Amino acid sequence: MSAPRILVLDDEADLRELLEITLLKMGLDVDSAATLRQARSLFDERDYALVLTDMRLPDGLGLELVREIAASGKGTPVAVITAYGSAENAVVALKAGAFDYIAKPVALDALRVMVRSALKLSEGAAAADGGAVDSRMIGHSPAMQSLRAQIARLARSMAPISITGESGSGKELAAREIHAQSSRASKPFVAVNCGAIPETLMEAEFFGYRKGAFTGAAEERDGFFQAANGGTLMLDEVADLPLAMQVKLLRAIQERRVRKIGATSEEPVDVRIISATHQDLARCVETGKFRQDLFYRLNVIELALPPLRERMDDLALLADGILNRLTGPGQASLGPGVLEALKAYSFPGNVRELENVLERALAFANDGAIQVGDLSLKAARPVEGGRSETMTPAVAPAPVPPPVEAVQAPPPRPMAAPVALGPAELPSNLPEYLEQVERDIIQRALQQTQFNRTQAAALLGISVRQLRYQMQKLDICAPDD
Ligand SMILES: Nc1ncnc2c1ncn2[C@@H]1O[C@H](COP(=O)(O)OP(=O)(O)OP(=O)(O)O)[C@@H](O)[C@H]1O
User: Fold this and answer.
1) Residue 260 confidence class, pLDDT cut points 50, 70, 90
2) pLDDT tens-digit map of 17-48
3) Same domain, yes or no, for 333 and 294?
4) Where is each Sigma-54 factor interaction domain found (predicted)?
5) How far does the centroid of ligand 1 lie from the alpha carbon of residue 138, in Å?
6) Rounded to the nearest whole angstrom, what is the distance from the C-alpha of residue 355 to the centroid of ligand 1?
7) Cα(78) to centroid of ligand 1, in Å?
8) What is the pLDDT of residue 330?
9) Ligand 1 in contact with 170 (CB < 6 A)?
């Protein structure tokens, strides 16, 4: 079998030669061109495993070739070579359908990594992995079909993706799916909840540290970037990143290099970034909470997940899939009227809430047959500012109590409500009293939101990080802890 063939398009003879030699040494065949015209005619004649093009050419822009190849339907990955510091060009090329980019001066180690990644795509390795991916993503609604098609397309590129969608709508699941269908599938997928890391630990967590870099650094440790090397790093709740960390992250993404705390040199990292948030990032930029340059970098391609209430056609399939996962195939079922009751509910907590509702209902159900009375659907309440008006009216909780002999619901978590004080009364121990009040309020918010920390934090007007910190301090556990 002949070696994969690469098309190199660059008008600088020196750089073209360097690229040719590097690729030949990798055992690949190379054709090269110095103008767009030559490249077009070569591309029409042959199939390439990768096209590598400079941006500025004597007879036009490399971007034109990117667009033409994307429209050709051949599925050939194209990577662009951008001038040093012209991050904007890279973003434009990625948006136009480029698979990846590499900045001048071309670092040969990074070039090799990129080429190998492109080859995996061309060899169909990704298709083999991706096609047979054991997908957990359920749904046949038009919204889900379009989402699947977008995921398949995005999996073939290195472009940073920003996933938006309400809490529990499946943002992390979609990110995992993109990774699983990509040429990076055999490498790690690392998901980081940016809202859960204390600010003081952020740099160490993201970039790692050398032994002795600070008090307590007894061993050298990798950060998230090193852990995700070769794979995908998902930055969940990215809007919660403090501004100082945003600067460092932008640098790491742009340079594709990170420096461990205490290290004197940087190390290259090959990581695809997927970010997610349930907040409006553009709005965060307007209010100065999020850096515009980082927003621009992360938001190259946006993937919007529909809320569950906008794809109720999927409800039966989803319920089936969730019940199968919880009890095993065919062990649980929905009784008369249950699906209708679920469909009439607005699911502010989306698929996660559906999972919780079904799990709880199962605890009440006889022999796995869930009845309307086993569902306890909450009155809808606003999830975040401004969202509530889009919700459909909620169903009142069904009045039928579970039969006495039914499986007992899990015992409620102990809630030490604070002792109410009379108007003239003072607590004998103020810190203890305040702790009790705080614990009681946090527990109530968590129970109201079925332990969805993001929603509970929003209800209480604090960040998820603050909520996690308080939960830890007050020793409040969620069922999934
Ligand atoms: N289409 C789907 N099919 C099956 N399960 C799904 C689907 N979408 C979401 N889920 C499930 O719902 C739960 C929540 O999904 P996920 O964690 O991906 O949501 P999220 O949007 O990232 O939530 P958050 O905003 O709180 O981080 C998970 O258990 C996930 O497996």
Assistant:
1) very high
2) 999 999 999 999 999 999 999 999 999 999 99
3) no
4) 137-363
5) 10
6) 9
7) 32
8) 83
9) yes
Q: Give the domain extent around 458.
A: 430-473
- Domain contains 366: yes
> What mean pLDDT is predicted for residues 206-210?
94
In a domain, residue 419? The reply is no
Residue nearest to atom 9 of ligand 1 (CA): 170
Same domain as 9, residue 57: yes
- Cβ–ligand 1 distance for 138 under 6 Å, the answer yes
Same domain? For 156 and 234 the reply is: yes
The CATH number assigned to the domain holding 241 equals: 3.40.50.300
208 lines ligand 1 (CB under 6 A): no
167 lines ligand 1 (CB under 6 A): yes
Residue whose CB lies within 8 A of the most ligand 1 atoms, among 173, 359, 465, for a mutation test: 173
For residue 261, the CA-to-ligand 1 centroid distance in Å is: 34
Distance 350 CA to ligand 1 centre (A): 8
Q: Do residues 284 and 165 both lie within one domain?
A: yes
- Rg of the chain over CA atoms, in angstroms? 26
Ligand 1 atom showing the smallest separation from residue 138 Cα: 3
What is the per-residue pLDDT across 217-245, written as a single tens digit (0 to 9) for each? 889 999 999 999 999 999 999 999 999 99
Say whether the ipTM exceeds 0.90.
yes
Write down the pLDDT at residue 276: 94
Q: Whose CA is nearest to atom 10 of ligand 1?
A: 170
| The two structure tokens encoding residue 319 | 């319920």
Atom nearest to 174 CA in ligand 1: 18
Residue 278 beta carbon below 6 angstroms from any ligand 1 atom: yes
Please check whether residues 114 and 222 belong to one and the same domain: no
In a domain, 400, yes or no: no
How big is the chain, counted in residues? 481
Q: Looking at the domain assignment, is residue 404 inside a domain?
A: no
Distance from the alpha carbon of residue 480 to the mean position of ligand 1, in angstroms: 15
**Contact 311 CB / ligand 1 (< 6 Å):** no
Q: Inform me whether the pLDDT recorded for 11 exceeds 70.
A: yes
Expressed in angstroms and rounded, the spacing between residue 322 Cα and the centre of ligand 1 is: 11
